Amino acid sequence: MVHYIGTERLRELVSRVGCGRFIEELAAEIAADYQRWNEFEKSARLASHSTVGVIELMPTTDGKLYSFKYVNGHPKNTAQGLLTVTAFGVLADVSTGYPLLLSEMTFVTALRTAAICALAARHMARAGSRSMALIGNGAQSEFQAIAFHQLLGIRELRLYDTDSRATAKLIRNLARLQLQDLTVIRCGSTAEAVCGADIVTTVTADKCNATVLTPEMIEPGMHINGVGGDCPGKTELHGDILLRPDARIVVEYEPQARVEGEIQQLNGAGRVTELAQVLLGKQSARATELEVTIFDSVGFALTDFSSLRYLHRLNSEQPDGGQRIDLIPEPDDPKDLFAGLTPQTSRLRRRRTA
Amino acid sequence: MVHYIGTERLRELVSRVGCGRFIEELAAEIAADYQRWNEFEKSARLASHSTVGVIELMPTTDGKLYSFKYVNGHPKNTAQGLLTVTAFGVLADVSTGYPLLLSEMTFVTALRTAAICALAARHMARAGSRSMALIGNGAQSEFQAIAFHQLLGIRELRLYDTDSRATAKLIRNLARLQLQDLTVIRCGSTAEAVCGADIVTTVTADKCNATVLTPEMIEPGMHINGVGGDCPGKTELHGDILLRPDARIVVEYEPQARVEGEIQQLNGAGRVTELAQVLLGKQSARATELEVTIFDSVGFALTDFSSLRYLHRLNSEQPDGGQRIDLIPEPDDPKDLFAGLTPQTSRLRRRRTA
């Protein structure tokens, strides 16, 4: 039987651990895996594009465990009351090929994205960063806010969204959370939100080459956490920001980021650093207080691998052990699959019914 | 909510329809899809190999529906009481990216493989074929036997397996089925089983370049249904059989068959025909009674697509409608994912518990 974590079970798990601590534990799991970067089989995700969105499969393995995530991106879904991004994933045992866990990953994708962004920022933002601009106040914004409050000690959030209802929703949700010492400031424009912030997080959703951040907004020493630009033709930063001589760009996995990230605008040029090298201490993400650092996050299969393993352990550790589903047959004799499909008992049952 | 077909539900569905009719309906669904071959986005499967097996993802789409299958192949699994091949799959709506159905596909893979093999044989074997050799009497053999009995009118089965217990199991299962007018003959060798047969089905499991069939066994007019050779380094036919001047080779999808099928032995040479062209009547698979025809089946994503759509319809048509699982969140406001993760009711519940 395969373990199953549906949305209700995920709610229970997050509620038991607490959202901030859940993201922090996830970040630790992700950091541990990125530090053994070379042990993983890596590939760009397998995307199927349509005129209205994309469906992607994101597999990876360390030779012991295998995982993949199914994820879609459909910006127009909200108009019919549906989510822009939904996801689910599977963790499997490489030695047998058997799936171990099937889990919802719509919530998990938001949680793990926030976790890796905060993890990267801990190595990239100036020490003592306390103020963050949050541009784009949609589905992922609360997760970013919680992660940066919990892992970086952000105490001032400067919010802006072109849709004022999104900002109102974010403020309402943050108020409910009663995060310690957090000041939330509603701003009238991106420029106003960004002005004076230590960290700028962009997490907008339109599938186009947007210029959410323009060069004159960027101040020396800022850390830019670019989350929303994550597929070909979908970017948030003006290209000149990437071309600043003092800019240091960190990505999850360079071959994928070149296609999907902000750096798709560089057409293969420019130097970028992979996060694993920073976490391993092999490369530094910031040399001075004045450099501009950019985490160009697009989402990578390894982050989902870490998340699924964390979830599998957390779920199994609960006293109730969680639910299992009959996704894989368990025949008495593995060489006799057919008898497993047509057991004599059910044949008898059918005869009786007939 | 996503529809769910677990192994118990699949047993019910097959039992309600009957195994032979289930395969026949599946074959009709597969034929209809292969006849609109050009509407599908096709790619070779994404394989992750380890020393003991392989895990694969097999996606495809026609622009309206999207499907993928997860499937593993681990020949040594049976030693620890596990299945060599397990699988599950998902059917999704391209317009929203939402998954519609999650289904077990371990049983379905065996059913659909038998269905497409019988479908191909209807166009490739000599008219009036009545006798089939079945070499390899393992997990898939019953499905091949039923499919060829149902769709081609095979009335004599000539069985051989290096493991005599496998043959005994197949005979036992076939006896239970009481298939109309079927004679089952147990043979002492592959050569004995093949001798005089109209159709030769090879469905062995070892991950190696085996030579289950050698050139001197092949008689004019035979149809060879090669099922077991399905990944790099795993073949069943002696290469000279493929090189016969009178041999006509049909595959599901040439780019994948060149890597995974029997024709990997040809190193890119030789002419092969895709099944779709045969089903569309654009190419003939047999010109004379004396030619040797070979269906070099490796399993292709489109066959799984057809199977998932058939299952989804069949499942929905049942009076009970089937089970659903909470794989995807259904928040009140799609722009407020966070509130869906931490509903106020569950917050209240937690407070009360605390």
Structure report:
The structure is a homodimer of 354-residue chains. In chain A, strand 7 (131-135), helix 4 and strand 8 (156-160) form a beta-alpha-beta unit. The first copy, chain A, has helices at 7-17, 19-34, 106-124, 141-152, 164-177, 190-194, 239-242, 254-260, 275-279, 301-317, 337-341, 344-353; strands spanning 2-5, 46-49, 54-61, 65-73, 87-93, 99-104, 131-135, 156-160, 183-186, 199-202, 209-213, 223-226, 235-237, 247-251, 273-274, 292-296, 323-325. Mean pLDDT of chain A is 93; it is low at 346-354. Chain A has 354 residues and is an alpha/beta fold. The longest helix of chain A is centred in the first third of the chain and has 19 residues, at 106-124. Chain A is globular, with a radius of gyration of 22 Å. At the A-B interface, helix 1, strand 3, strand 4, strand 5 and strand 6 of A face helix 1, strand 3, strand 4, strand 5 and strand 6 of B.
